[in-house]
Design brief:
Structural class: alpha/beta
Number of helices: 18
Distance between the termini: 39 Å
CATH class of the largest domain: Mainly Alpha
CATH topology of the largest domain: Dehydroquinate synthase-like, alpha domain
Helix content: 40-55%
Bound molecules: NADP nicotinamide-adenine-dinucleotide phosphate, zinc ion
Largest sheet: 6 strands, parallel
Shape: globular
C-alpha cells in the first residue's frame, strides 16, 4: 500500500493571486512554460505575470511548448532556462506544458546531463529538480497532481513517461481559465480523465484505499456525462470537470495507467489524434475484455450505465470511432504485446487474441 500526493492544491477563482505568498519562497527567477496562444487568451498568463511581479520575482517566458511535447523541445527550453539562471518553473496550460515543465525542471537542475538528455530522462536515478507550480487550463490530464511527465520520443516514434517522478510543488486551479476551451478540448480532456478513472480502478495497482479517488471521480463523471453533448458549459460545470480530472490525477498518481493508455500512444503519434480521444476509443473494448465482471459492473454503476453496450454507445456518440486500418491496428497490438512493462498493470494474463478484440476494425 502506498499513499502519497505531496502537491499543495488551491482551487478557487483567482487562486493565483490569492495564494501568491505560497510561491514567494520557491525561487528568485521563474520560467513560465506555456503553449503558443491559450494562456494569453484565457487570462492565466497575465495573472501569473502579475503575481510574480507583485512578489518581486523575476521571470522569463517559454511560450513555444507544443502539444505532446518532445524531448527536443524540452532540451531547447532547458538550455534557455540554464542561460537565464532560472530556479523554479510555472507551467500554464494543459498536460503538455505541465509535463514538459517537470522534465525541464529536472534537466536544468542537472545541466551536465544535457548532452545525454534522453538517457538521463529515461533511466531511473535519484536526482534533484527545481520546484514546479502547475496551473491547469484543460480538464483531463491531472498532471498538476501526478508525478508523470509524458514526452514524445521521435527516435522511437512513440510517447513515454520519463523515469523520474516529479510532483508539482503547488497546483493552482482556477476554472475561469477553461472558459476559452472549445467543445473538442473539453470533451477530449474529460474523456482522458475518464480513462484515468477506469484504468486506475481496474488495474493491478488498484487497492481499497486508492480506489476511493477513482470511485468518487467515476461518480462525478457519471453525474455530468450528458452535459458533454452541449456546446457551451456553465462555470459550475467547468469547475466539476476540473475537480474530477484532479481526482482522476490523484488516482493514477497511485496506480499509474493501463492498457487503453498504452494503446493510445501509437494513435497519437502516428495519426495525430488528441490524447484523451485516443484513450477513449479503447475504453469500451477494455471493459468488454476485462475478466472480472463484478469490477466492471461497479465502474458502470458509478458512471450510471446499466450495461457495457450502453457505455459503448455513449462513447461512440461522444467521440466516434477511430479511423484505423486493420494493418495499423495489428501493428499497435504487436507493439503493445512486446512491452511487458506496460502489460503488467493489467491484473490478468494478456494474450494477443484478447487484445485484438479491444477494437473491431
Ligand atoms: P495539451 O496538449 O496541453 O493542449 C491541447 C491544446 O489545447 C493546445 O492547442 C492548447 O493551446 C489548447 N488549450 C489549452 N488550454 C486551453 C484553454 N483553456 N482554452 C483554449 N485552448 C486551450 O492538452 P491536454 O490534453 O491537456 O494534454 C495532453 C498531454 O498530457 C499529452 O502529452 C499527454 O500524454 C499528457 N498527459 C499527462 C498525464 C500526466 O499524468 N502527467 C496524464 C494524461 C495525459 P496552446 O498550445 O496555445 O496552449
Ligand atoms: Zn491520459
Amino acid at each position: 500500500m502506498n499513499l502519497y500526493m505531496p502537491t499543495k492544491v488551491f482551487s478557487e477563482h483567482h487562486c493565483v493571486s490569492n495564494h501568491r505568498d505560497e510561491f514567494k519562497m520557491l525561487g528568485k527567477k521563474a520560467m513560465i512554460v506555456t503553449g503558443k496562444h491559450s494562456s494569453r487568451n484565457n487570462g492565466s498568463l497575465d495573472d501569473v505575470k502579475e503575481a510574480l511581479a507583485k512578489n518581486g520575482q523575476e521571470y522569463v517566458i517559454f511560450d513555444d511548448m507544443e502539444e505532446n511535447p518532445s524531448v527536443e523541445t524540452v532540451v531547447k527550453a532547458t538550455k534557455a532556462a540554464v542561460e537565464e539562471g532560472v530556479d523554479f518553473f510555472f507551467a500554464i496550460g494543459g498536460g503538455s506544458p505541465m509535463d514538459a515543465s517537470k522534465a525541464i525542471s529536472l534537466l536544468s537542475r542537472n545541466p551536465e546531463k544535457l548532452d545525454h538528455a534522453l538517457e538521463f530522462l529515461y533511466t531511473f536515478q535519484r536526482a534533484d529538480y527545481y520546484p514546479v507550480v502547475a496551473v491547469p487550463t484543460t480538464c483531463g490530464t491531472g498532471s498538476e497532481v501526478t508525478p508523470y511527465s509524458v514526452l514524445t520520443i521521435h527516435s522511437r516514434r512513440t510517447k513515454k513517461s520519463i523515469a523520474h517522478r516529479i510532483f508539482p510543488e503547488i497546483a493552482l486551479m482556477d476554472a475561469r481559465y477553461l472558459k476559452t476551451a472549445g467543445r473538442n478540448t473539453i470533451v477530449n480532456t474529460c474523456v482522458d480523465a475518464l480513462g484515468h478513472l477506469i484504468e486506475a480502478f481496474l488495474c493491478t495497482n488498484s487497492n481499497e484505499i486508492n480506489k476511493i479517488y477513482a470511485r468518487e471521480g467515476l461518480r462525478m463523471w457519471g453525474e455530468f456525462k450528458e452535459s458533454l453533448f452541449q456546446n457551451s458549459f456553465s462555470d459550475e460545470l467547468l469547475e466539476k470537470y476540473l475537480h474530477t480530472s484532479m481526482l482522476a490525477g490523484i488516482a493514477i498518481a497511485h496506480t499509474s495507467t493501463s492498457i487503453p493508455h498504452g494503446l493510445s500512444y501509437q494513435l497519437t503519434y502516428e495519426k495525430n489524434i488528441a490524447h484523451g480521444r485516443a484513450v477513449g476509443y479503447f475504453l469500451p473494448g477494455f471493459l468488454r475484455i476485462y475478466e472480472d465482471g463484478k469490477r466492471v459492473e461497479e465502474v458502470l454503476n458509478c458512471l450510471g450505465f446499466s450495461a457495457k453496450e450502453e457505455f459503448q454507445e455513449y462513447i461512440e456518440k461522444l467521440i466516434g470511432k477511430p479511423e484505423v486500418t486493420r494493418a495499423e491496428w495489428m501493428k499497435n497490438v504487436d507493439t503493445m504485446m512486446n512491452q511487458p512493462e506496460k502489460l503488467k498493470n493489467h491484473p490478468f494474463p494478456m494474450t494477443r487474441d484478447t487484445l485484438c478484440k479491444m477494437l473491431t476494425v
